[in-house]
Design goal:
53% strand; globular; 22-stranded antiparallel barrel; Maltoporin, Chain A; five-stranded mixed β-sheet; mainly beta
């Protein structure tokens, strides 16, 4: 942060040089056009366009698939502290345990299947860990593309991420723009039973070079004392400290060429926490709702640096080339003590399932001590060609081609160096009321050889260098017979090679699993700026490897199925009233479990989830300009699992219903400036006791208690 003062002058000088060079070449004066601002609600919960579904900006109602978006207005009003907290507002998205100790931290399950790891702008997968610490204030928006999406963004390979069947999470950082100068500051203090949090945020965008360049800095600081550092075995631990700064710059060098760079620095030091056991919806094994298995000195430390240069070149009126690259280096370390767990066939485990207590009567029983550290390297580069053309008979065609490359490695045994070369080819054709989309993605993987510890105390197992490839197709269709009615459907598939596994004979397989989705639905616009979307889907996952207890692949006959329906309503009910309501139903089936046996069809994730968020601005009277907001989240019963498999009837999470309320009172109510506002909020209004996420049945993370928040926000 000490270097921030020199960032904007440097960017300004660089942009001025580029503009001068461009002007010398074109000798033209740029016409920036006219900006039209339409009346709308104070907040916009529905975006005009989304990008993660096609890599082109498309109105969400025009897509043959579902992309849910959490806008910057939504983020500002709900004030979530990280990406996990933000995604809990999207039904059908399940967050894993918020711990560096889990196998794939920072990833999410979507539609009952594993989602691909989060990515910046849909193309830069962030790798192990960063998703746990990404402050939501840094985001301009977050888009969740539903269903297998490797046909657009590519598969990953099991050594990195054996998921990707359910969808993807794309994060779009706030970045410099040429719209004008704007500054925003925000500070919040919240407190509840045995917990306190203080946050400060700054967002400043400055233009220069006669409006042809801009620089922006977004920064956050967060101090947090969770409840479990004031009670139990972690009592006395220092709180969480987290800092982030995201400088960016943009320059319109010529009318045809725009250059930019985004960057992000993050630091987090927090008490370790991996949850507690669960029994009949409550903490088990002697734990309370506000305790941890970790001890006072157990910590998780994370640092990262990201830089993303980019360029947009409008070659012709019909042809756009986008160039992008990214480099991310992350370093983390952790010491964590896990809650106790015996083997699933042990007598004491069966006793625990009956009673919720260990036969020994001991509290804070620990299954082990984990201490690890790693440095992760992640590099990405892509070139995207988008060609739009008006063909005969009124057909509009958009052809996209994108070759890209990604490399990642990690120390500490957490990531074998792996390269992925890929190419996406996609075509979209519009003809009258009909829009058709077809695409295919090809990936080729090269994983270096490595050695890993063998099972049951065996010596190291050496894995030779592996190469494998996979292709993932997709097709979609939209029919819009009326301006306010759209029917849509798609078939999409993700294929991922099984890198980094070992067969019984010692060989290393590269056979790909595949997940295929069939989806159909419709969209209706009941009001001018309000859309209702209804969809149904089925995802079949095949060729899933099945393991023994040492991690050796026994066969590739694993199959599972996820089917369900989703309903969403988003947009403006009136000029001063906006809403986003979502419902998701999901039914998961493990096809390898015998019919009629518990664990074949069970609530691996909540069968029913619902969320409602709304914001209303008072339009007149003494309270004119005051904004009132409310949110509610419901999750039905689900079962705690072990590696995704059903364990026992008593190891379950009960349904939960969490309500939040908030208000923003502009100073104009008191005779001051409307640019400043006092913010008030209550999270978990009814003090619901619930579990928010889990890794296994003995590593379940509880939700926060009721907290009261007061803050100050200003724009100028």
């Amino acid at each position: 942060m000490k270097n921030n003062p020199s960032f904007l002058p440097f960017a300004a000088a660089l942009c001025a040089a580029a503009v001068s060079a461009g002007a010398a070449g074109t000798n033209e004066v740029a016409d920036l056009g006219t900006v039209l601002v339409e009346g709308s609600a104070l907040s916009k919960y529905r975006p005009e366009t989304v990008a993660s579904g096609t890599f082109t900006d498309v109105a969400p109602e025009a897509l043959p698939m579902v992309v849910d978006t959490l806008t910057s207005d939504f983020v500002r009003e709900h004030n979530p502290t990280d990406l996990h907290d933000l995604l809990r507002y999207v039904p059908g998205v399940e967050t894993g345990g918020k711990s560096l100790l889990i196998r794939q931290p920072g990833t999410f399950s979507i539609r009952g299947m594993g989602g691909s790891e989060p990515a910046f702008d849909g193309v830069m997968p962030i790798g192990r860990g960063p998703g746990l610490f990404m402050d939501a204030f840094l985001m301009d928006r977050v888009e969740i593309a539903k269903g297998p999406i490797a046909s657009l963004a590519g598969g990953a390979g099991a050594a990195q991420n054996a998921s990707g069947a359910g969808g993807s999470v794309s994060m779009f950082l706030k970045s410099a723009n040429l719209d004008g100068d704007r500054r925003e500051v925000q500070a919040n203090t919240s407190a509840g039973k045995d917990t306190v949090r203080q946050r400060a945020m700054v967002d400043a965008n400055e233009t220069f070079a006669d409006g042809r360049g801009a620089g922006r800095v977004v920064a956050t600081a967060d101090y947090y004392e969770p409840t479990y550092v004031n009670t139990g075995s972690a009592k006395g631990a220092d709180g969480r400290e987290s800092y982030a700064v995201a400088p960016s710059a943009v320059c319109a060098a010529t009318d045809e060429l725009t250059l930019g760079v985004k960057s992000l620095f993050q630091y987090t030091d927090q008490p370790s926490y991996i949850g507690v056991p669960v029994w009949r919806g409550k903490p088990a094994g002697g734990y309370s709702w506000r305790e941890s298995s970790c001890r006072e000195g157990d910590r998780s430390d994370y640092k990262s640096f990201l830089v993303m240069p980019w360029a947009d070149w409008r070659v012709t009126d019909s042809w756009l080339l986008k160039f992008g690259a990214a480099a991310m280096v992350s370093e983390w370390s952790q010491t964590t003590r896990e809650p106790y767990t015996p083997g699933l066939d042990a007598d004491e485990f069966r006793a625990f399932c009956r009673t919720g207590a260990w036969p020994s009567g001991e509290k804070y029983m620990l299954s082990g001590f984990s201490e690890s550290s790693a440095v992760l390297h992640n590099y990405n580069v892509f070139v995207r060609s988008v060609y739009e053309a008006e063909l005969a008979d009124g057909v509009r065609n958009v052809l996209l081609f994108q070759p890209d490359y990604n490399y990642r490695s990690s120390t500490g045994g957490f990531g074998t160096p792996t390269s992925r070369w890929g190419a996406t080819l996609q075509d979209t054709a519009e003809w009258g009321m009909l829009t058709a989309l077809a695409g295919v993605r090809y990936d080729w993987f090269d994983q270096e050889g490595y050695a890993a510890a063998g099972g049951r105390g065996a010596g190291p197992v050496r894995y030779p260098r592996m190469t494998a490839d996979a292709y993932s197709p997709r097709a979609g269709l939209s029919l819009r017979p009326l301006d306010w009615l759209v029917f849509f459907g798609n078939v999409s598939q993700t294929r991922t090679p099984m890198l980094g596994l070992r067969n019984e004979d010692g060989s290393t397989p590269d056979r790909a699993w595949r997940a295929t989705q069939y989806e159909g639905g419709f969209r209706v616009r009941p009001l001018e700026r309000l859309w209702l979307t209804v969809s149904g889907y089925r995802i079949d996952q095949e060729n899933v490897p099945e393991f023994d207890n040492t991690g050796i692949v026994l066969d590739y006959d694993g199959e599972n199925k996820s089917e369900g329906a989703e309903i969403s309503l988003s947009g403006d009910l009136a000029d001063d009233w906006t809403v986003m309501a979502m419902y998701a139903y999901n039914r998961y089936t493990d096809e390898n479990v015998e019919r009629g046996k518990k664990g074949r069809t069970f609530e691996r994730y909540p069968r029913n989830t619902f969320s409602l968020s709304t914001s209303w601005r008072i339009g007149g009277g003494a309270l004119e300009g005051v904004v009132l907001g409310a949110g509610a989240r419901f999750r039905s019963k689900s079962y705690a699992t072990m590696r995704g498999s059903y364990v026992d009837e008593n190891l379950r999470f009960d349904e939960s219903f969490v309500v939040d309320v908030n208000a923003a009172v502009p100073f104009s109510v008191f005779g001051g400036s409307a640019d400043w506002a006092l913010t008030l909020g209550v999270r978990n209004l009814f003090d619901e006791k619930y579990f928010e996420s889990a890794r296994h049945y003995y590593e379940c993370l509880v939700g926060e208690p009721r907290t009261f928040e007061i803050g100050l926000r200003g724009t100028f």
